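Re: beginner question about structure tokens

> Can someone show what the tokenized structure looks like for a real chain? I only ever see the sequence side.

Sure, here's an example I had lying around. Input first:
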Amino acid sequence: MPLDVRSIAVRFAILCFFVTAIVGWASGLSPFACSERAVIGALIAYVTGTFATRVINAVLISAMAAHQVNKRKESKDDNET
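And the corresponding structure tokens:
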């Protein structure tokens, strides 16, 4: 079963938003600069998370399809003997 792309990307973006905001706050940035960087980081994290999840889904689906093909080949070979 493929992973839910949007849910994972949103969670990753929210996590990156708060981590970036906390790091900016701890560094002594102004609230505007802190929030601006956090939003930019969240957008980058969302795009990256979406891309990574889609790649993982493609690999998983490919592996499941290959498994089914191998299973059918084995079943066909067993019936022929």
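Each token stands for a local structural state, so reading them left to right follows the chain. The helical segments are 5-26, 31-80.
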